[in-house]
Amino acid sequence: MTTTKRFKGLANQNPAPQSFNIIRVNSQRLLTGQWSPTLGQIFTDPQDLETNEQLIERQRDGEDFFLLWDVAKRKAAGIELTQILPQSGAMYIPWTGVLPEYRNLGIGAAMTHEIAGHMRQRYGASHTIIEAEDPVRLRTSGAYAPDEIEDAIAVAARRINFWRRQNFVVVDDNTKPVGEKLSYVRPGSADDQQIQAYDHMAVRFHDPALRDRVMTADGQISKAFVRACYFDMNRIQFGKDLTDTQLRDNYPAIDQYARAIDAIASDTLATRNEAIIEKTSPTAATTLNVVQEQSIAMMTAANSKRRAAYN
Ligand SMILES: CC(C)(COP(=O)(O)OP(=O)(O)OC[C@H]1O[C@@H](n2cnc3c(N)ncnc32)[C@H](O)[C@@H]1OP(=O)(O)O)[C@@H](O)C(=O)NCCC(=O)NCCS
């Protein structure tokens, strides 16, 4: 029989769970007043940011903005933007993150997981696609200044490990050197007519049946599925109605990747399989609930003194 013992001196080792709401951001007020400034505190490189006008345009287009709200402190703790292609179930995350004081506690990881579940329920999202910098090709990419490159490579390696810990499958054969394997390329983030060659694509399955269909027992992934994910992700970014041919005609990088993947004889591709480094920092006890901004506004309207609270 298991019994739970309580030791006074250890009380702080089991603090009450920190409570967060993951608010679906529906209004411009919350988008520009909370979401956008929080994004700017997490991603400090101006090149990674967009203007409020661009964000409002995305909101009008139906993209799903989420704000992580610390209920006790009554302040924003993180953000995520998700974009979905309902016809295929593919979901893409351009930004996700938590403020520095909330990092390394498992909170960001739990947030992405919770949002994916919500997106599956709401739109039938079956898998999430992300891109993550390739630490190897980053070195010669010119993407970082010489005094930043070593840090950037270290963070990129940790991030790949972090995403794999979150069950993302990274499409890359880590047993082969660059030049002897499929090389992921995408339209440049600054100039989409350029070819950006320092990322990998990764996929997480929300639908286990889909995973079973496209993954082999030894961790290979269907080439046709990777190809479809690549086009879906680019459709999400460049125009949901664009055909594969239009994407290839409009963006040299997309054509290059399509040629490279089509040149592979095998039906499956290798995925990263080196041992995952376990998390060493402790995971905080948290409760996270996805809530609608509207329902929060109604709750707070009932209490006029607390109108601005998102608890
Ligand atoms: C990446 C991030 C969302 C992880 O959330 P988290 O809840 O802190 O994650 P966990 O506690 O489960 O794991 C901690 C991992 O976060 C990553 N991390 C921690 N601090 C980080 C930082 N300043 N920058 C980037 N990644 C960081 C590390 O991979 C770390 O794992 P490791 O120490 O084993 O390498 C969070 O660190 C963050 O918001 N970083 C800045 C924004 C970002 O890089 N977003 C992802 C790309 S869009």
Architecture blueprint of SSEs:
Elements: E1 18-25, H1 28-42, H2 52-60, E2 64-70, E3 75-85, E4 90-98, H3 107-123, E5 127-133, H4 135-138, H5 149-165, E6 169-170, E7 186-187, E8 195-196, E9 199-205, H6 208-214, E10 221-222, H7 223-238, H8 244-250, H9 252-262, E11 268-269, E12 286-292, H10 293-301
Parallel strand pairs: 1-12, 4-5
Antiparallel strand pairs: 1-2, 2-3, 3-4, 5-9, 6-9, 7-8, 10-11
This protein binds coenzyme A (COA).
Summed up:
The protein is of the alpha+beta class.
Written description of the protein model:
With about 300 residues, the protein is an alpha+beta fold. The protein folds into 2 domains: about 15-125 and about 285-310, Gcn5-related N-acetyltransferase (GNAT) (Aminopeptidase, 3-Layer(aba) Sandwich), CATH 3.40.630.30; about 130-280, no CATH class. The protein has 10 helices and 12 strands. The chain has helices at about 30-40, 50-60, 105-125, 135-140, 150-165, 210-215, 225-240, 245-250, 250-260, 295-300; strands at about 20-25, 65-70, 75-85, 90-100, 125-135, 170, 185, 195, 200-205, 220, 270, 285-290. Strands 6-9-5-4-3-2-1-12 form an 8-stranded mixed beta sheet, sandwiched between helices. Strands 7-8 form a two-stranded antiparallel sheet. Strands 10-11 form a two-stranded antiparallel ribbon. Helix 1 crosses helix 2 and helix 8 (about 245-250) packs across helix 9. The radius of gyration is 21 Å and the shape is globular. The two termini are about 40 Å apart. About 30% of the residues are buried. Residues about 1-10 and about 305 have low confidence and may be disordered. It binds coenzyme A. The site of coenzyme A (COA) has 20 residues, from strand 4, helix 3 and helix 5.
